[in-house]
Amino acid sequence: MSASVSVDTNKIDRVLGELLALSVAEVGRTLVDIADDAEANAADKWYTQVRKRTGKTGKLKTELRRGTGDKLEAVVSSATETDKRTYLVHRPGPLSMRKKKVLASEYAEIMSYFRQNGRLPEGIVARRIDETGQPVQLSREVRNPLAADGKNLWNELARKEGTKIILARADDLDAAMQRAANRLRQG
To answer: What is the pTM of this model?
Structure first.
């Protein structure tokens, strides 16, 4: 007596192909969602770290890419591929100073000091000296309120914090695979 069991390998191939396609789609959506969180986190903090708002830096985008081989990745990058300025923005260093215009009420006192001593008071600088030797466009050097560690914003906000967000949401990838399997089972 013998028993035989047969399997239609074409059907297995088709079902596995559908499962793979559904899994790639679900995982791709999840990867983009995670990358969007990392992008939003970086964009929210970008200009709180620097003062210059040219509009040319800090613009980010997320896209899903099929890498070489079987690699699927969501990438947060500069909004324009040719504009590398996003990657080069640094926070001000710890000793960073700014110039603040001298108020009109202080100007007379500063100029009186200049006439008496032949120099400006400590911490006051002139942008230029006019033809009569008088300092013009006076400003006070103050500590930059945004002074930090001088580190590269892209590394700090997009890469390091993005990695933390990705690790915190790793379970979402497992859930995406489960959704794909459930969808295949239902339909």
So the answer is: 0.62
